[in-house]
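Quiz preparation item.
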């Protein structure tokens, strides 16, 4: 599920007006960087996320940058990730990691809490959580 809201028009003769992207609704790059930083800070702080944290290796610096670059584009902003690495190929890039239901649920819970901590309001919070869950579930490889 793409997080970008679908434009709709009650009158088919009128052009569809594109609403703000989730990137814009979240507040742009600075706010997405803060979201990503909170996500990885929680991963380091919360004992209930230890399996997720263990999958990320000894340092989170590279993961922070890659998730920030990816989310900017995925949410409708600048395509920083694609400019650096090409198509994200999320499933293929995550195949080396063992991802099951526990890791999926920890990832989604961590991102959900990070969004709450950063003040993401419903219904955007709900829509993004659903999109993150769908993507994380698709990444499972065990």
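Solution:
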């Amino acid at each position: 599920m793409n997080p970008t809201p679908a434009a709709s028009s009650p009158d088919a003769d009128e052009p569809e007006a594109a609403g703000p992207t989730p990137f814009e609704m979240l507040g742009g790059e600075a706010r997405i960087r803060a979201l990503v930083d909170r996500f990885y800070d929680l991963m380091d702080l919360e004992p209930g996320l230890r399996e997720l944290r263990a999958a990320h290796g000894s340092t989170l610096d590279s993961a922070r940058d890659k998730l920030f670059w990816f989310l900017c584009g995925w949410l409708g902003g600048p395509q920083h990730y694609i400019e650096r690495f090409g198509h994200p190929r999320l499933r293929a890039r995550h195949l080396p990691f063992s991802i099951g239901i526990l890791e999926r649920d920890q990832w989604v819970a961590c991102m959900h809490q990070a969004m709450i901590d950063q003040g993401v309001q419903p219904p955007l919070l709900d829509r993004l959580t659903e999109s993150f869950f769908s993507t994380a579930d698709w990444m499972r490889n065990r």
